[in-house]
Amino acid sequence: MDEENETRGVTIVAGGSGAIGRAICRRLAQDGHDIALTYRKNADAGQAAEAEVRASGVRVLAASVALENSDNVKLFVENAARDFGGIRSVVYAAGPHLDFTFISAISPDDWKRVMDADVNGCFNLLSAALPHLRANGAGAIVAVTTSATEKVPIQDILSAAPKVAIEMLVKGVAKEEGRYGIRANCVGPGFTTDGIGGQILAKDAKVTEILRRQVPMKRFGTAEDIAAAVAFLLSKDAAYITGQSLAVDGGLQL
After folding, report:
1. Distance from first CA to last CA of the chain, Å, rounded?
2. Which pLDDT band, with edges at 50, 70 and 90, does 104 fall under?
């Protein structure tokens, strides 16, 4: 693997305006990555994430992209590759809004919406980026999934099921693209104080304490915990790691 190629080009962060996505963008910018981030509709959050990255002194591009629209994704990736001289790495940290509910209460339309946005969104991103990573002669991919792919909490299937498909997609990419110097891994957050998880924890102090007791480390994770794991898997320190799913969950899966 050519180390010069490994650091050439931009890092794409899909979902870079969310709580975890923004933490990832900040951490990678601090590590010297130029960043091309996507957001869906929240332009204020996208602009805030863009400003945080720029404050680190690196180059940044932010754009509204519907990840389930393959044409939109391809255009964004091509523009990023053109403007930054290639694609260095790709992070999928996106996911649609969803409700935590029993399977029997999920409508077919909601199931389809979540699967289209999450599974197809991740596929569209990787499909558009892989030719550029190959052209670069090296590269790394990380998808942020969930630790619930191994231990599924009740009422969490809308979160867990798409992420299982994404993990299999990423492992397939690792197996097929390693010959081109491309690595692909997943990071699986457990209960976190940020993002959707944080919103759930904030609703009910009693439930929050019950959940805390399930975590061997007796604390919830933060967006920065997830960002640190992503940064490691994108770094040269992880140069021989591919096809893995790293649970960042304080031991919740045990």
Report:
1. 35
2. very high
Position 107: which residue type?
Answer: S
Residue 161, SS3? Answer: helix
Q: What is the DSSP string of 69-116?
A: -HHHHHHHHHHHHHHHTSEEEEEE----------GGG--HHHHHHHHI
The two three-digit tokens of residue 116, written as one number: 């289209």
Instruction: Encode pLDDT of 111-167 as tens digits.
Output: 999 999 999 999 999 999 999 999 999 999 999 999 888 777 788 899 899 999 999
- DSSP 8-state class, residue 153: P
The SS3 assignment for 204 reads: coil
3-class SS at 46? helix
Q: What is the pLDDT of residues 64-102, one digit of tens each?
A: 999 999 999 999 999 999 999 999 999 999 988 888 889
Domains defined along the chain, listed by start: 3-248 (3.40.50.720)
3-class state of residue 119 by DSSP? helix
Residue 84 class from Cβ within 10 Å (0-12 exposed, 13-18 middle, 19+ buried)?
buried
Compute the residue count for the chain.
254
Distance (Å, rounded) from C-alpha 26 to C-alpha 35? 9
User: Rg of the Cα trace of the chain?
Assistant: 17
The reported pLDDT for the residue numbered 1 is 45
State pTM to two decimals.
Answer: 0.92
Helix (H) or strand (E) run with residue 27 in it? helix 19-30
